[in-house]
Amino acid sequence: MTLLNHDQVAEAALADWRLLQGALHARFRTGTFAVGLELVNRIGALAEEMDHHPDLDLRYPHLNVRLLSHDAGGVTGRDVRLARKISHAASDLGINADPDALSVFDLALDTPDADRVRPFWAALLAAEDKGGDEVHDDSAAVPLLWFQASGAQEPRQRFHVDVTVPPEQAGARIEAALAAGGTLVSDADAPSFTVLADPDGNRACICTVLERQG
């Protein structure tokens, strides 16, 4: 199966969905728990029909849906087809999507030696240690933890938060954080990521799937 990139997903014109951290995400404003359950049941029937099963998170008053092909390691045409069917099911129930509310939360740990610390964090989070620069739970029950290469010098900020948002929402999220007392540390890598800091100097990044410009 061929993995789809941001441009290919955009060409699919999935108005309800956004590509975030290698998966399609949507939030449907169900209004009531009962309506949310009805949508879950319809999605369940579609999933069985296609033999392709999304991650569902039903809350009051919305339903979060995550779609990816685990066997391919990302988004494929199969996900696009199921996304369209899910949007149609939601529309039939009079449910609107809210893509502006979407975001994915990750943690980054600065370390000079990821191989030394990764086994500990994999054990702590009950996640499989697959090597490389991250530890993640395929079910997304806990945030992805990735390891950013850094020098050994002290002091350094050990952890920082990465918040991945739809590209069209990055500017508003950054402005809101700045208005709430934050400062801009660097936008040299925007729109891929923009580094901000809280009033105490703790850093965080607003990220998108777009590549750095220039």
Automatic annotation (TrEMBL):
It holds the Pfam family Pterin_4a. It catalyses: (4aS,6R)-4a-hydroxy-L-erythro-5,6,7,8-tetrahydrobiopterin = (6R)-L-erythro-6,7-dihydrobiopterin + H2O. The lineage of its organism: Bacteria, Bacillati, Actinomycetota, Actinomycetes, Propionibacteriales. One of its GO terms (biological process) is tetrahydrobiopterin biosynthetic process. PANTHER family: PTERIN-4-ALPHA-CARBINOLAMINE DEHYDRATASE. Residues 107-207 form the Glyoxalase-like domain. Belongs to the pterin-4-alpha-carbinolamine dehydratase family. NCBIfam families: PRK00823.1-2. Keywords: Lyase. This is Putative pterin-4-alpha-carbinolamine dehydratase. Its EC number is 4.2.1.96. One of its GO terms (molecular function) is 4-alpha-hydroxytetrahydrobiopterin dehydratase activity. It comes from the Bacteria. The keyword Lyase applies.
